[in-house]
Amino acid sequence: MDPNQRKELLIKAMSEGMTYKEYAAFNKQLAKEGKTTGPQKEAYVNYTKLGAARMKRWEKMYTPTEAFLQTLAVRVQEGEQWLVFSEPWCGDAAHNLPFIAKWTTALGIELRVILRDHNLDLMDEFLTGGGRSIPKLVRLSADFRILYTWGPRPAPLTEHYNTWRAKEDFNKSDWVLFAQDWYNTDKGRSLEAEFLT
Q1: Model pTM above 0.85
Q2: How many domains is the chain partitioned into structurally?
């Protein structure tokens, strides 16, 4: 994609994207109605319900320390803005977005969330290993230069995922349970560490 075209799409995404509160409310409403985004597959409806519950849980349980916020603030440019690609059925998004949202609120960073499948042209500019993995966070300067990208999960969990995926008998349901336990044990420490380095 032409850099100017990409910049136009980034400007549009930041102006039209949802705030975290809007995204969380959207996820909660879908869960309440027994719906999801995209094809209405039962598994994805269930993931959406789980996602809404997980986000609510992390919102209540997690508070970033002042020391962490002060260290992160040093690494953030004036006018920096963060864009996240997500979908309500995404388990990794449910475990990471509440943390990211609290940081941006505390530091006055503008955060917008857009749906991956409604923004595939832009999503395809930020692939992970050739795939449209989400959540995908794009840190942008005030003038929409790409500063850094992150996603879809903390590096230690990605290492586990790669090991699991390499097995012939890979079972997605088992992986989801493993990942859930990992996030519950880690409590955002790995995510914080990555954003400080």
Answers
A1: yes
A2: 1
